[in-house]
Amino acid sequence: MHHQRFSPRADYRLEQSVRTKASITLSEKFRELKALTVEFGYFTAQGVTRNSQIKYTVNPDFAKSVFRLDCMNQECCCGDYDLSDALTRAVAARQATVTGEMACQGWLSKTTIDRIHCLNILRYKLTLEYGKRAPKPATQLQAV
Ligand SMILES: [Zn+2]
Fold first, then answer.
1. Where do runs of H (alpha helix) occur along 23-111?
2. Nearest CA to 109 among 122, 119, 96?
3. Which residues does the chain have with pLDDT short of 70?
4. Is 87 in a helix, a strand, or coil?
5. CB-based contact 64:24 (threshold 8 Å)
6. Does the predicted model carry a pTM greater than 0.70?
7. What's the 32 CA to ligand 1 centre distance in angstroms?
């Protein structure tokens, strides 16, 4: 029997992690993407830095195409940063580097739901490497 305490924060994180795990990998979604490096730092809504810059390399064969980074606010509810769209735009334009900033759209804490947004800022830089574009599917060639 399941008896869980109401926790919108944990529910949300669980939901997002299920969504992430269910998504296809980056190399399945973007066949020409060969390598991805992500650098990011967290800032308060006022733009004050909270920690050092983090940098890591993602293997597109294993990383999921729902690409999210957690908000640094331990009390944050239903926010976090979803870089999936930024990544999709970058690959579509075959950009080698992309920088951007996102404000967390979650709530500051579970006691401020529907009242105060989190708005912590993530500043990120994506570095992308591409291989040869995969050949077009054979069905398109048969039409000739
Ligand atoms: Zn947040």
1. 26-29, 84-92
2. 119
3. 1-6, 133-144
4. helix
5. yes
6. yes
7. 32
